[in-house]
Amino acid sequence: MKTTNKEEFEKQNVFGMGNANTAYAQYFSGESFLNPLTKPETGVFLANVTFEPGCRNNWHIHHATKGGGQLLVCTAGEGWYQEEEKEAVSLVPGTVITIPAEVKHWHGAKKDSWFSHIAVEVPGENCSNEWCEPVSDEEYGKLG
């Protein structure tokens, strides 16, 4: 359900906003928040990522020589996911996106809604993340 009202959104965001995502702010257009749900040393890292309306991360690639990639489990609000050279996919609570390693993509909120998803780092070998260029205002603006 779309909402621009932060207080209303926080009632829907059952995993909580957490803190300002300052460590990765340089890779986001707009403000995002990060609430780690597990510790990285557990072997599977999960975090609830919240995006203010219009916020999205840069294009990026999850590299791995075996396994790896990312899962997104959408939990509140509405957002977008897009792979390079493909149409954007609308995200709503309950949507699950499987992102294989080596696929260039981005994800974030719709311009008129807060958005949260749980990001799951898929275990693999020689995993790393490559941050690329921002999603331009022009290409983002074309999305409904």
From TrEMBL:
Family matches, as PANTHER family: BLL4564 PROTEIN, RIBD C-TERMINAL DOMAIN CONTAINING PROTEIN
Descriptive protein name: Cupin domain-containing protein
